[in-house]
Design brief:
Order of helices and strands: HHHHEEEEHEHEHEHH
Shape: globular
Strand order of the largest sheet: 5-2-3-6-7
Number of strands: 7
Number of helices: 9
Structural class: alpha+beta
Bound molecules: zinc ion
Largest sheet: 5 strands, mixed
Helix content: 40-55%
């Protein structure tokens, strides 16, 4: 259940902050550390063990208030009785999980064979939500890597895990691909990195212009993909071919 702030002054010792909502405690830690906590930021290191469960309870309470304000009869409508809980779980444990959990652990292998050929991973199906409307974004990502002898190689499934971790936050497609590029640059350290993302934005299908065909495509090119136009063309041609 949602707990409210205790108005009675108390000494600041031990567990005396019992009544403070979990989100307030987490926010205080973020502010003290001067860390950004935008919708697409990961805040896992500021959440203590057990607090995620409390956060879920808190979101459930607030979600219930939203449903009440939408004048939905939660007491008698058998369809929505448990909706607040379901939505809270969906946000915290599923679709926005990438904000609250630590990055997936990776095994990085040295590039023993000194591979220096273009490698493309994709299409990786990605599921996200737009920060503006919290509507789904469902799409595909292609990742091009140009390794050098000092690069780390990671397993194919790890590209999927890392993408999932970045995408399962309220996102803006342009920022999502940049975040993914930064993460891969850091983990793999290649000579060049290219990412193309193509996605359906349900805030355009379900509401607004209601255009069913509109897709958004964007790309990030780094290192050798920026400098070498034939490498960039080769990557884009291969992706285009697979996009069909
Ligand atoms: Zn939107």
């Amino acid at each position: 259940m949602l707990r409210t702030i205790d108005a009675v002054p108390r000494p600041a010792v031990g567990d005396e902050d019992e009544g403070t909502p979990v989100s307030v405690k987490i926010r205080e830690r973020l502010l003290a550390a001067r860390k950004r906590f935008n919708a697409n930021d990961n805040i896992a290191e500021f959440i203590e063990p057990g607090e995620l469960e409390g956060l879920l309870d808190e979101v459930e309470g607030k979600m219930k208030d939203v449903l009440e304000s939408l004048v939905i009869d939660l007491d008698n409508d058998h369809n929505t009785g448990n909706t607040a809980r379901r939505v809270a779980k969906m946000y915290v444990n599923e679709v926005f999980k990438g904000r609250y959990v630590a990055p997936p652990s990776l095994t990085e292998f040295p590039n023993a064979e000194h591979l220096n050929e273009l490698m493309i991973v994709g299409p990786i199906t990605v599921r996200s939500a737009c920060s503006h409307h919290f509507c789904p974004i469902i799409g595909r990502v292609w990742i091009g890597v140009m390794p050098n002898e000092h690069s780390n190689l990671i397993g194919l499934s790890k590209y999927v895990r890392l993408s999932e971790w970045i995408m399962s936050r309220p996102q803006i497609q342009e920022e999502a691909v940049t975040q993914l590029a930064d993460l891969l640059q850091d983990k793999v350290d290649p000579d060049g990195l290219a990412i193309v993302m193509e996605a359906d934005h349900f805030c355009m299908h379900w509401r607004g212009v209601k255009d069913m065909d509109a897709k958004m495509i964007n790309s990030v090119m780094r290192g050798s993909f920026l400098k070498d136009s034939s490498l960039r063309r080769e990557f884009l041609a291969l992706v285009d071919n697979k996009r069909g």
